[in-house]
Structures
1.
Amino acid sequence: MQVNIPRRAFNPVYLPLLDDEAHRYIVLYGGAGSGKSVFAAQRLIVRMMSKKLCNVLVVRKVGDTNRTSTFALLRQVISRWGLYSLFDITDLRIVCKITGNECIFKGLDDPEKIKSVTFAKGELTDIWIEEASEITEEDFNQLDIRLRGKGIHGQITLSFNPVNILHWLKKRFFDRKEPRAVTLKTTYKDNLHLDEDYKRTLEGYKTTDPYYYQVYCLGQWGVIGKTIFDAQKVNQRLCELLPPIRHGHFIYQTFYDPVYNEVRIQDSTIQWVEDEDGYISIYEDVREGIPYVIGGDTAGEGSDYFVGQVLDNTTGKQVCTLRHQFDEDLYAKQMYCLGIYYNTALIAIEANYSSYPVKELQRLRYPRQYVRTTEDTYTRKPKESFGFKTTSVTRPVIIAGLVEVVRESVELMNDADTLGEMLTFVRNEKGRAEAEEGAHDDCVMALAIAYYARPQQDYTPKKTRGKKATWTADMWEDYYNADDAGKAYLISKWGDPFWQCAF
């Protein structure tokens, strides 16, 4: 028996997924009133009628909630389409008379009932997890392994509102690539069948509760608890972001410096390499004569990433982000290249857990590092050291500075990972601002350092000095042994080796 359901019965945004057989996981997420649950129900009815074998398990965290939600919704779809004669509907069980396929409803509050699920014909092929954000990852794994029948192409549909940016769903399906998953975000604006009065109710939250509107109506990832940064502005900026103009990393050649008996990077060989999966994201390319600042956070305790944040110091705009897990020496060398690329930028790397990247930049003779003033332990006299030290005094200062930037000029932020970290940056029970348990703060701290370091860099564009010059090892030795006036003289005599940046 052939049953034709008109395409107008579906919201157009969902139609590409109606006949999807390529993916194991169909992830439907977004705001209230988007029609994602209705589509999940519609799709299962179509599959039960059209596929030779399609036995469905519909799951919620608490079994009793199925009766007034998922079960009622599937019955409603069958009724609206005039298909009651084609289905047997009993207590929490729906059977298609055409194919013999079944749909049953269970709750994860009773795991034994899930284990005992059986069908009159064939095996389990489809699972729909409604309000998937309510279940644990362990619950999901147990359901996932149920779809293991020989020759069966199983599918799991997940529908939920993304209320917590730290949820395992985000980490599993959004923070990393899952080739077997397709994700679709929708809002009430995508639902052509939505009641106009309800639509006006949702839009009313724009003014009465903007944060609620962004999270629960527009389906932005939200936070639980009070964030340090303005969550409303951060979420709004996340909605506006454009993708990076390029991804990649730097390659270079080295040379032996006989003066210092060391192997160093040959500046003239530094090249940018395009790589779709590259760990450096460029949002605005280097501009001639513009001074830049780079803040760095090293992978220390409670951190997994080395990060570099590049600011255009004339505007304060975030123009580039480096974020990767690699060895300290490789991080230092990529930061060296990044600094040279951005007009020999001022580099300020956090030196708490390890001073190696700072010392490596010194060894490589990078000419422009952040300088902090400390007191000599023995002489009690002031001394200057490279790198930024995060202390009980400096930490709240740099965070407060970044909070102000986000509050007043969030449009300067361009990196999604950085903004995502801001949504998990909260004040703990002791009043300390820090990332929530399980979250990262690498990008936030590197950016805070970059903004704090800006006064050590010029704020105005510089005139160019012509083409870059290539210096010999002897010339470099003379340069590093000279004072500021001497360095300026040598540049005027031999040419500028630092691209267009003056310092």
Note: Residues 394-409 form the longest helix (16 residues).
2.
Amino acid sequence: MSSQRAVEVVTRLAEHGLNADREAVTLLSQTTDLAAVIDALLARPDAAALRVTAADVRTVLGDGTSPQETSATSSTTSPSEGHIGGSNTVEPNGGIGENNPSASSGTAVQVTDPVTGHSTGTGVYDDFVAVFRDRYERLSELLAGRVPPRTVASTRRMSGGATAAVTGLISDIRSTRSGHTLIELEDDTGVFPCLVNSDREAHAVVDELVLDEVIGITGRLASDGDILFADAITFPDIPRTFTPPTADHHAEAVLISDVHVGSQEFHATAWDRFTEWLHTDEAERVEALLIAGDMIEGVGVYPGQDAELEIVDVYDQYRRFSELLKQVPGDLEIAMIPGNHDAVRLAEPQPAFTAELRSIMTAHDATVTANPSTVTVAGVPILMYHGVSLDELIAELPADKASYDDPQLAMAHLLKKRHLAPQYGGRTRLAPERRDHLVIDEPPAVFHTGHVHKTGWGKYHNVLMVNAGCWQRQTDFQRSVNIDPDVGYAPIVDLRDLSLTVRKFV
């Protein structure tokens, strides 16, 4: 099958609101009178169905239209592999489930969503107390096997000079005049000061700490018992012995993010090349396309954005995005979460798209779920998070520990902290739900983010981390803040062994 002919087929189907699986596209590419076959497909009793299968095509062709090989000889250049960010080794919740009318059972993609339709936060003081208490309790449980569980109150009752440990949320971090670091840990029984001397091994990680995260500190109490001299700092962390589950058959998942439809800088050519590749034999093992937020450019997201919009109405942006989804093979499962440019609340966790928006994005019967969500493909759990908190970590941590050029480094810190947005009150807007849905209870096999428009990947304690780049060329705003985006990259995960191939479509 000529790749050019396949693109023609997919485009013609999309004009009629249809998409097709890969075998159907192959059959349609072999017909001499494509228009007649499409008309016959539209005349079927079940023509309202959006997905055209190979069986549908064979039924139509059996009515008198026979396939014939085309003589087209033109072809497009194969996309090349790209490896931006390298593979630095820095040593689940998801489809709408029971409350999602678009979720289907028995598919390759399985998700649960405890957020959408189940939001409990009202913004009152008690909600903020509840979410931090929940965070502390769950993360302290993860620490309990390595740090003796002890409250601030019980630590205060210990004798001076004793070996002690305390677990809590970081309420304050500050440097002393002598170059040491004072950390205050808080739980619901009080606050306890811990001093990390600059000559201690533990001091090497103090520049990784942020307010509100949960850690454990072990050391020795002062003679009066009023302060803990730290010997070690322990994070909730992913166990080094973690063995991620893998697929029992040859299945692949494509991870992308930040499509930004509606922007003048949306790279339509790269998208066309990408969706064309999805129809090739090389992509026959791809079972799922996972999109980690920012389907559209949005409106009013940053100053002067209106001057950079190709589509000025947010609903029209989603309609255009839905049309683009029709280019994806109809037998491919699609799961997507919102991002900060999408038309949902900005505070995280973000619920899935509303029923109104889902009614617009019906072209592929995609599974829509919350940000964050854990999406399971062929038995492999993939944690999807748009990634706004990466901005915060990159701003707070030293450049050698987190940077935009290597987003996987910041991702590793989120896994280490077992929380997707540990610092409250910074750049990341957080909703005070009674349960902290940003805690990473179970380690994923794959951690998939976007947002920063840079491609990077690596492994942390056997978890594959992938930041997927974007499909938007550099905007004036990005130029003003020195962001040079990685455009048109598609990371492809082999779910049998979590190996990664990154393809470039520009």
Note: The longest strand covers residues 163-175.
3.
Amino acid sequence: MKLKNIFIAGLALNLGLSACTGTFLDEKTNPNYLTPSTFWKSEGDIVKGLTSAYAYLQPNMAWGMPFERYIVIDNYRSDELDFRADVTSWMNLAMYNNSPNDALGYGEWRDLFKGINYSNQCIDNIPHVEGVSEELKNCSLAEARFLRAYYYYRLYLNFGERLPLYEHELKGTDEEFYPQQSQPGVITGFIEKELIEVQNFLPEPDGWKPEQAGRATRYMAAGILAKFYMFRNQQDKAEKELAKIIDCGKYGLIDNYAHLWDGLHKNSKEAVFEVQYSGNMDGGRREFNRLAVHLASSDAEGYEEAYPSFWLFDVMKQDKTVDGDYSDRLYATILFDDPKTKAFYMKEGKQFSDYHSKDAIYWHKFVTWDESLSQYWDWSAFNIPIIRYADVLLLYAECLNHRGATSQAIDYINQVRARVNVTPLPKDMSKDAVLKHLQNVERPCELALEGSRWYDLIRWGIVERSLKEHKKPFADNYVDSKHKLLPIPHDEFLLNPEWEQNPNFSK
């Protein structure tokens, strides 16, 4: 691992934790180097340490920043979007032509292991901080363990199980830089164990002050554990975790679907887990996600680097309201030629056709902007949803349907549909019909561009079929035994040539 120079740093991050600044310091060259003897002395040091661990929820891979993780890695391979084919490292992924040398995969691998190391620094040192209550220590340790488990969960989704397992911070020993790959079952067992245990120590959502929004709760842990179980087709276990979120009474659907994407209703009752962005530049750290500038059309000075697929557009047009109209979730998701289309850059009296070709479609979700959010529109201050309550309801419905409680499952799906006044599903649908509806209509319509679709296709075992049926560009390049995972980055094999690469990739 090329993590030899990762040390404690007080990173500036507006997560409701603290406004702290600092640099990466080297013990041999800087007398102010932070060591356990000079740091980890107070509650404030715990906050700073946790801030550094939370920082890697906000990826910093390259100039695309969160776009690269939450749009490219989580969506480019799916059938829900098309793409601009001139950015090599991104397009290789979308064209199923990626390699171990791609900067994109290396950036994600590097960032997640950095997040793991910062989490481990907290886990190793918090127990020794004096003058701090055991309750605060236990909660802080649970936060760090949750983050570590979440980072490993993302690594597992995209790189598989053959990962090195780090349970302690790196000290710079040779042994640490020549680790063994984990055997099957080790990483998945670790993720499961950690996400179960931390729930006992993490607070309820209202256990945090409003300015501390984004910090871990027991239901964030339950939600990630449920998605982990769903990915592994362990619906019985997932159902129990999802029930915790539903039964706690802390969450619900907000009334207006469009408000989820206007940047003004962050951390609403629908937000189970959101990555936080403020839109400012405090401490020199970029507290904006720039999704808007990557997704917006060129007429809005955007880069047009992701388009909604025509398959998704057609599905959303067909899923109409009880009045026979297009739904609010279509208008909030896709910008297209329609009298009701609204976009932030369209002036009063102007129509879609004044800016675009009549047949063009663009992303609207994550592109709406308000002056109160940031100084510049491309400094998007949207939080990025990892788990919404709507997702919880749909996953729970899927679990119920899986065990034969189909009528009850339909009730939960209809809760989601009622919010946008879409025609409710009939109660006499079959188990198979409900599953197909979730696969081909409900989850893609409700959760478009939110990072679920690719992983849904994998767990359902329908990647290849869906890509071809929905006319995904370069679908013929997709090989099921190869492209479900990203290749382990080439640089890892320079230090660990005996490691095994993911199937059908070179080292």
Note: The chain has one domain: 43-287+385-495.
